[in-house]
Amino acid sequence: MGRKSQPLSGIEIMKTQIRLKIGKIRYLNCLPFYFGLPEMLAAKGLEPEMSFFESYPAEINLAMQRGEIDVAPVSSLEYLQHQDDYLLLSDLAIGTRLFARSVLLLSKKKIEQLSGSVIALSRESLSSAGLVRILLAKKYDHRNTFELTDQDPEAMLQKYPAALVIGDQALFCQPKELIYKYDLGELWQSWTGKPFVFALWAVRKDFAVRHPELLKAFSEVLKENLLRNLADTEGLLKQALGIAPSDKRFCQMLGYLVNLQYTLDADMKEGVSRFFELAHEEGLAPAPQPLQFFE
Predict the structure, then answer these.
(1) Which of 191, 184, 189 is nearest to 170 (CA)?
(2) pLDDT given for residue 17 in this prediction
(3) Which CATH number is associated with domain 10-97+197-253+260-294?
(4) Do the domains at 10-97+197-253+260-294 and 103-194 have one common CATH topology?
(5) Which of the chain's ends, N or C, has fewer CB atoms near its CB within 10 Å?
(6) What are the tens digits of pLDDT across the range 41-86?
(7) d(Cα 56, Cα 231) in Å, to the nearest integer?
(8) What is the largest CA-CA distance in the chain?
């Protein structure tokens, strides 16, 4: 009988010349995943075998579909739409139990008055765009049409009565005119009583099957790095962004990161399952299957 195979060490993985291509979302909410990650990978002997592709969520989704990257925090709706192609890294997500702060519907009218309106959707988003459609149709019984546009809050509101804006532009948005700001995480929670999961860390199934040792090593370092950064969020902002507590944005950023949920616990799984059910009902995705994880 042959010898039982042993897990590869960092140096042994390096010798295989396998390269793991990682998607990197450029928003503030992903900072705890990525700050210090290359250095930690290097310390484990893994850094030479990793490369990063940085963009906004919808572009990361497309790169995963095309196989240009192997692992990334993809939009939760992206996972649902291609669930046969992906596995999830256990315990990792981006979500909120109360309010999101960086996922806003900006409107010149009260949301109750938006039925029949054309709504602008940031082309940077997928999950949040699906959430807008579901909330307007299911919670408010509205009938709307939607148009994808470049994300520019001022330009969007000049042309449309309401616009979905996400990421850092939403977090720091200060419109020149008085408008209504609706936090989609808060609307979802008040309606369903569940957290909302905007993104899930996923890996292409074909890569996971071919290179489980490398993926396992990366996943462990990613989780370790995340926990280290979340343990000192103030230090993270100071070191990563060079921002001082005296800066008026410091408290805003700190409160934002502390409010986010990065662990896919039982409540978060219930929230994402409810979102998947509604997305299927609205014709946005196939019927959901049980979540599949990389073990």
Answers:
(1) 184
(2) 63
(3) 3.40.190.10
(4) yes
(5) N
(6) 999 988 778 899 999 999 999 999 999 999 999 999 999 999 999 9
(7) 26
(8) 75
Buried b (16+ CB within 10 A) or exposed e, 140-167: bebebebeebebebeebbeebbbbbbbb
* Pairing relationship of beta strands 20-25 and 118-122 according to DSSP bridges: unpaired
| DSSP type of residue 156 | H
In terms of Cα–Cα distance, which of 219, 209, 248, 251 is closest to 234?
Answer: 251
Q: How far is CA 203 from CA 44, 195, 237, 245, in A?
A: 21, 23, 28, 37
Question: Identity (one letter) of the amino acid at 258?
Answer: V
- HEC string of 71-108? EEEEEHHHHHHCCCCEEEEEEEEEEECCCCCCEEEEEC
Report pTM. Answer: 0.91
Rounded to a whole number of angstroms, the distance between the first and last alpha carbons of the chain is: 26
Indicate the domain borders of the chain: 10-97+197-253+260-294, 103-194
| 291 vs 16, higher pLDDT | 291
What confidence tier does 295 reach under pLDDT thresholds 50, 70, 90?
Answer: confident
Alpha-carbon gap, residue 212 to 91, rounded angstroms = 17
For the domain covering 103-194, report its CATH number: 3.40.190.10
